[in-house]
# Entry
Amino acid sequence: MDVTYTTTTVDGLATGYLEAGSGAPVVLLHGGEFGASAEIGWEKTIPVLAEHYRVIAPDMLGYGLTAKVLDFVDGRGMRIRHVAALCEQLGVDSAIFVGNSMGAINLFVDTTSDTPVLPVRAMVTICGGGEIQTNEHMAALYDYDATPEAMRRVVTALFADPAYPADDAYVMRRHESATLPGAWEAIAAARFRRPGSQPPAAAPSARRYDRIGVPVLVVEGGADKLLPAGWAAEIAGQIAGARSTVVENAGHCPQLEQADVVNTLLLDFFKECA
# Structure
């Protein structure tokens, strides 16, 4: 399956996205950690889904080859609106959305808001929505100082399997993504903070889930170091018709660590939403 990377302009901003396959559209939203990108977040997902669907995975603002915009006010809202504008530009007026970490939170923020802008007809949220734990792994995400060893701590926080942080090539790949020109500043401004300063308050989990009127699957990593056990069932219980599942032996990125399991979950859920 051919996967193409395209750079276009959306609202005057350079925007990169991966695309593969044909058919009903599926939009994948990557996480928000330093070094994230569409390719890194969804490389084990896109080829499988693209056998059945048109898959679009954008580099969100500040990540990959998309514009590095500094926003100290509403970085999350800015990213949501930018994805919505890209969808409109690509002719996507209704899609299944899948988000991991920040991408999942963005889906919850939009679909519970007064005025949702994303064309969501169903969604899967993976490891995003619960209260982030205050521990050394959360600190590793906030304290990334653009050094390889700091990235190793980020990778340790994201994965249950110690093989990931032990893999020097994988750590450096994420480190190189995190140190693209302007990337650290863009993410630090809108997503995190400068090293050494106090972390922001956790995003509130008490959202208006009753506003969500589309099919929802909430996915939890059974060995997630950043979110508490049981958060997915708690959120799914507040959404009419939603369900949750736990992917065992997976940390904060189950779509990478247990790709076969997650791909099966996604395809089965998509069929139910047809």
